[in-house]
Amino acid sequence: MDMLLRHVTMTELADLFARHQDRSPAPYLTDPEAVGRARRLAKANGIWDDLSEHLDPGRDIPVIKRSAFRNYRRVGDRTLPQSRSAYRSRELHRAALALYLGHPKANVDYLQDLLWAYCDDHTWVMAAHEGRAIDLGSAALGATFSEILHVLGDRLEDEVKGRVSAEIDRRIFQNLWNYKHMDEWKTRRMNWNHVCNGEVIRTALYQIEDPRILAHMTHAAIQNLTYALDGFTEDGGCEEGPGYWSYGFGHYLYVAHALSLRTGGELNLMTGDKIERICRYPLAAQIAGPLRSTFADSHHGYISARIAMIINAFYKMPELYELCELRPNRTLKVSGMHELVLYRGQRARGAPDHRDYLMPDLGQVKLRGRPGGRQMTLMALAGHNGVPHNHNDIGSFIVHRGDRLLLVDPGAPLYTRKTFSPRRYEIVFCNSLGHSVPVINGKQQQPGSQYYGKLEVENLNGEGKKRAVIDMTRAYPKGTVKRLVRTFTLTARTNRLTLEDAYTFSRAPRSVEEAFITFEKVEVAPNGRSVRIGPRGNRVRLSCVETPGRFRFRRLVEESKEGRADEVVTRITFTSRKLSKELRLRFEVA
User: Fold this and answer.
1) Pair 271, 372 in one domain
2) Helix, strand, or coil (residue 586)
3) Which of residues 291, 315, 342 is at a domain's end?
4) How many structural domains is the chain composed of?
5) Domain residues for 298?
6) Domain with 430 in it: what CATH number?
7) Example GO molecular function term (predicted)?
8) What is the pLDDT of residues 416-471, one digit of tens each?
9) pTM score of the predicted model
10) 125 contacts 135 by C-beta, under 8 angstroms
11) For residue range 232-247, what is the model confidence (pLDDT) as tens digits?
């Protein structure tokens, strides 16, 4: 897409800021009437009571110990330093929110002491990102601190405001222009770009009053946001999955909203067909409630109310509210200053989206069966194995029926030093063994964009049988298979799925192992020709049609610890008794 600010010079941006000198990037946060509404809403939805129960200004402020910070370098575990940081972050946000709302437990000294403690920290960069000048954590802290100064500064002492501002300048602004550090996130085509560039821009909007200095600080950063937009496929798909859509593109939305408000709507980064398509991506990724596609390093979850509300400030997409966490009356569950103030009673309509979705450039399809308590949903992926946060998973798929995920893509592993090292594909959550794809002659799929699949669909949103066809031939090392085509057929009326893998080899293979991944209980029939997956009352039967062979399964208990604390990946396999140059294996899920 065209570079943002392609036709706006730095001087013209300075003039634009100057024309709106008195505007705030978040005027709604300082509007007394809006603050009053936020207070009433906080009392009505439990946030007020949560502050009463959990905020304790007399509590000691935790120090990020050197030994905790060094835990990542020593053993590759980022949990300890991040858990300490997360605890203090929660305290900071609670203390700021209490003061903002005028809560009885609000204590300005507690908030100031928390801010002072951050100023004492050796670094704002996360332990896993040590060596960087600015990272995801430090950029977010800079924006949070500048926002607190902007909204609550009149209640803070000058000494505190001065020190926090000086640390923001030293750790964020000066590092941004340090020629000795090449922070590659500035032009990355993934979430780091939008988070870091976006938070640095928002920090500048709050902190810098001089229009010329503000333009100098932000012009290149705004342009750099384009690179991350280029990381989305032309159909708006997020190769990193819906979790990183919320995180990365969410920060793009925050800064676009702030720039629009700061410039009286003159600078609008939300225009363009591709931006609109990116905004709609979660609709294609959603399965039911918090369940969504978990391809790449993604998790289930809701989109935030703030994200949905910002998008609807630019585009009419009320259907996104269905993807937010809701209260029993279908109003949005909101928290934090922004959501409390922006909320105007928006609610989900209670109309589930039963449409099929195709994202041809992303290589992802969602097919729906007949609505009802036994509705089956299929989510399948082609794409390529060179995406950010890649898994070797071309042809992987998810089957949901009723209220359960019965066949899964296991999603993201736990993030450790190993996850982002050459040993990444030893992790079952990242390699082919953790996905519902074949292993051929002992060979798994390999990482790299040269390993890809091609997706075609038939009868999308139509009546009768719907098909998705993935050519998986190029997903495996050269010479592994001459041709491999996977065909899904969903009979919508009966909510029955057929999967067929058609192989062509140069010579008969030594072994072909079909695989199906689940977190559910598995029972193999005595003859080995079928398996039952899931709990009694809501389970499916997986069987091989026509071809003799045997199902087996193995619970990957130790391997699962690299990704799950409460679930175990179960790998179901099927091996055919006969192997030949032309092999067609057909499975039914019903």
Assistant:
1) no
2) strand
3) 342
4) 2
5) 10-342
6) 2.70.98.70
7) lyase activity
8) 999 999 999 999 999 999 999 999 999 999 999 999 999 999 999 999 999 999 99
9) 0.96
10) yes
11) 999 999 999 999 999 9
